[in-house]
Specification:
316 residues, 11 helices, 44% helix
Length: 316
């Protein structure tokens, strides 16, 4: 059987540094991958300890490599479903840019938001890129690229609703030590209006928000809280910082199966930093862990990405 697109084609696309300059590029690669799934029908495996999560196992030509766990409640497995969801997302973003958060009061928009389709579309597009990355001979070849493409996807979505948004590197002077600075690479800096950076606000304007965007909080949660604390301390004023994560789950051995899943979210660390160090101005997940909605302490600190895009970004 001849397939329209091959996995090496998709691997090359993920590595293409000139691609993904627009949201449509995420649609194109997603459509190609989902079409490939339908044509080649790789083995679909269900996690024994959480049946929501599935894996795809590629064929012998790719060493029977296995994708990352995919939440089947969010992952759109059919190209036609993704196409329709992507078009609805672009339409919603256009209306949101034009009318602002007031649009969410409309009954039709409330019905749309109840479908959770923003999270589903974003999750599917990003996890397709991750799943393509999992097919490489050496996963380290693509790990950094996958993270960069998630950061880029969030940036494009924020810009699509009319916000300015960019990556920025700043060197903050250390008080009483004029010859020393601390360098910060900020994933995203965004604001509703173009902020004019004057001499007194040359690092971060009061109207700007810093966004830390990671595929997972594993091994990163400490640094995000510490960065907010230090930037506020060094700049002498409150610096607004939010965190956006794709998910917090990884494949793990369960009994005799290698297809179990584990949470990588550290509840105690998160609450400890929130209480003892500083509260983030928002923490958002595309695929929240169940305890983030059932635990009242976490529920007050964490929301989903769809809520950020449709509500909180305007409040911030």
């Amino acid at each position: 059987m001849t397939v329209s697109v091959t996995l090496p084609d998709l691997q090359a696309s993920v590595q293409d540094k000139t691609a993904f300059a627009q949201l449509e590029d995420y649609h194109t690669i997603s459509d190609a991958f989902l079409t490939l799934l339908a044509e080649t029908q790789p083995t679909r495996i269900i996690a024994p300890n959480d049946h929501r999560y599935i894996f795809y196992q590629y064929g012998a030509a790719y060493g029977h490599k296995i994708t990352r766990p995919l939440n089947s409640d969010l992952f759109l497995e059919k190209a036609n479903d993704f196409q329709a969801a992507f078009e609805r997302l672009l339409s919603f973003l256009g209306d949101l840019k034009q009318m602002g958060p007031a649009i969410t009061a409309k009954a039709s928009v409330q019905n749309y938001l109840q479908t959770n389709e923003i999270n589903k579309t974003v999750y599917t597009a990003q996890q397709i890129i991750g799943s393509i990355g999992d097919s490489f001979d050496n996963p380290n070849q693509s790990r950094k690229r996958i993270g960069m493409l998630f950061e880029n996807l969030v940036k494009l979505l924020i810009k699509e609703i009319g916000f300015t948004c960019e990556s920025r590197t700043i060197s903050v002077p250390i008080p009483d030590s004029p010859d020393y600075t601390m360098s910060y690479e900020l994933d995203l800096v965004f604001s509703k209006e173009s902020a004019i950076i004057a001499s007194e606000t040359k690092f971060i304007h009061p109207d700007e928000i810093i966004g830390s965007v990671k595929t997972t909080s594993k091994d990163r949660i400490d640094k995000i809280f510490l960065d907010k604390f230090l930037l506020t301390k060094l700049l002498g004023r409150e610096i607004k910082v939010i965190a956006i994560f794709l998910h917090d789950v990884q494949r793990a051995r369960r009994s005799n199966s290698i297809f179990g899943i584990n949470s990588t979210f550290k509840t105690n660390h998160f609450l400890g930093y929130t209480i003892a160090l500083n509260r983030m101005n928002g923490v958002y997940y595309v695929d929240p862990r169940p305890e983030m909605t059932t635990d009242p302490r976490l529920r007050g600190e964490i929301d989903d990405f769809q809520h950020f895009l449709s509500h909180d970004i305007w409040r911030l």
